[in-house]
Amino acid sequence: MLKNRFRNITRLALLLIVIGAIGNVVLYMLGKSPFNLGELSTEQSVRMDQTTNLLIHTETGTVDVVPIKGHEIKAVLEGKTTKQSLKDYRLNITQDQGQTRIEVIQDSKFRFF
Fold first, then answer.
1. 3 CA to centre of own chain
2. Is residue 41 classed as helix, strand or coil in its secondary structure?
């Protein structure tokens, strides 16, 4: 009797693993899987004439600051993320009293599908 119960639990566990694997394959084919990665690349230019202080704030990713010409710089955010959240990341640049702040903003931090 104990052997039968163990066999039934094992069969149920294997069935659930197979269902989970099939579900992941279907989500991947539909492009909704977290395994579908895309290249994230966004950039924004700003003049730095009156800037004495530069602050970069990001919770995720890396921001590169590249000089272009004269008093102008380009902030570049590059990386990989799920294809669903490619449009959720943007650069926000503000200037106030000699301080330039570059911030990475993620619009939607949580989603089911």
1. 48
2. strand
Angle at the Cα of 68 (from 64 to 73), degrees rounded to 5? 55
CA angle 94, 80, 84 (to 5 degrees): 85
Distance of CA 106 to the CA centre of its chain: 8
- Amino acid letter, residue 36: N
Q: How many residues does the chain have?
A: 113
Does this model's pTM top 0.70? My answer is no
3 state SS for 49-82:
CCCCEEEEECCCCEEEEEECCCCEEEEEEEEEEE
Cα gap 65→63, rounded to integer Å: 7
Q: Kindly report, residue by residue over 45-68, the tens digit of the pLDDT.
A: 888 888 888 888 888 778 888 888
- CA dist., res. 77 & res. 71, Å (int): 20
Q: Which amino acid is at 63?
A: V
User: 92 CB contacts (<8 Å, ≥6 apart)?
Assistant: 102, 103, 104, 105
